[in-house]
Amino acid sequence: MNEFTHTLVRLDDAGLTLADPADDLRGRTVVDLNDEEVGTVDGVLIDEDERRVRFLEVGSGGFLGLGETKRLIPVDAITRVDDDNVHISTDRDRVAGGPVYDPDVVPERHYLEDVYGYYDTPPFWGPGYFYPGWPR
């Protein structure tokens, strides 16, 4: 098993900015493979050392942010990005059943492994991992 030495932080907390504001996925609607709304990208988690987006923080349910449930979706599940939407490779019921994310807790390796396993994608720290290029 590879040693896990990565620190993931919310982009908002990292003090970094995007080179091109058009690449910012925050605020866009997440749409499933059936073109049904899943939720909204509330934030992105980046690998602080490699400065790559690793997860979307997606909020769904609730009203005006109250009672909203947050989940992480690996960028590997993104199939397409347009001006308003982020399209993912699974359906919204699958996302709704995924591991819940608490933005006040730094995610640990075992939680991240669960998320990657749930979406059937390889973890970014594994051998042979290839960054999908979403977002650019």
TrEMBL record:
**InterPro entries noted in UniProt:** Bac_photo_RC_H_C, PRC-brl_dom, PRC_barrel-like_sf
UniProt cross-references to Pfam families, sorted A to Z: PRC
**GO:BP terms for this protein?**
photosynthesis, light reaction
User: In terms of domain of life, where is this protein from?
Assistant: Bacteria
**PRC-barrel domain residues:** 22-93
Listed GO CC annotations:
plasma membrane light-harvesting complex
- What name does the UniProt record give this protein? PRC-barrel domain containing protein
